[in-house]
Amino acid sequence: MARRGDELRDHILHTAKDVFLETGFERASMDALAARASTSKRTLYAHFESKDKLFLAVVDLVRELYLDRLRTPAEYADDDTEAVVLFCGRFLQTLLWAPTLRMCRLGITEAERLPEASARYYDAIFDSAHQRLADHLGLRYGLPAADRTRIAHDLLGRTLHPRFLRALFGTEQLLTERPGKESIAADVDLAPIRAAVAAALPTRR
User: Fold this and answer.
1) Is residue 169 part of a domain?
2) What's the domain range around 32?
3) Chain center to CA of 50
4) What is the pLDDT at residue 138?
5) Is residue 57 part of a domain?
6) Is there a single domain that holds both residue 37 and residue 113?
7) Which of 84, 131, 138, 181 has CA atoms 20 to 30 A from the CA of 69?
């Protein structure tokens, strides 16, 4: 049975995501995208009036997928401190997964021509992660807004450096298999994250 309506749109989006990651934005023509999605170019344009609009929709899709994988700190452990450690580890682990890293590079490549898309992707990958961590610190540690925001930025910044930057520039081996929460400790060195968390968070009495 032929796909229609929302099912077809969803299929086009997932297909376009794969094509953009494989070939980049410029080389991904609407003809190629339609052929890969097994639909007509007319149908493609009926759902997305331009390649720019399609790319923006792909960015929104990636945002949903990423945030669904990242989850919130409280979902990683009952112990509040361990939850922060594992959330930071999951943050780095997810960014080191090859498709996520390629999307980061694609966002940087298109930043001047499609700043809206790059801004949306940055918000999804970085700002949303900071906000989720800051919210956890406020809820579980009672930290005021300024302190929890500062600590969240500091912890995630320390988590990223230097491994994410090495990966971004192609000098770090990427994770090729979809990373799961159960493999955080195997994929990421949690020792420096634990030290940073212990130094940053207030001591509980």
Assistant:
1) yes
2) 5-49
3) 24
4) 96
5) no
6) no
7) 138
What CA–CA distance (Å, rounded) separates 160 from 62?
20
- Residue 97 — φ and ψ, nearest 5°? -70, 130
Residue partners of 111: CB distance under 8 A and separation at least 6: 118
pLDDT digits (tens, 9 = 90+) for 153-202: 999 999 999 999 999 999 999 999 999 999 999 999 999 999 999 999 98
Residues 21 and 74 in one domain: no
Report if residue 55 sits inside a domain. Answer: no
160 and 120 in a common domain: yes
Within a 10 A sphere around the Cβ of 178, how many other Cβ atoms?
11
Place of tokens 């009952």: 78
DSSP class of 178: P
- Residue 126: partners with Cβ closer than 8 Å, 6 or more residues away: 156
Cβ within 8 Å of residue 56, ≥6 positions away: 114, 116, 117, 120
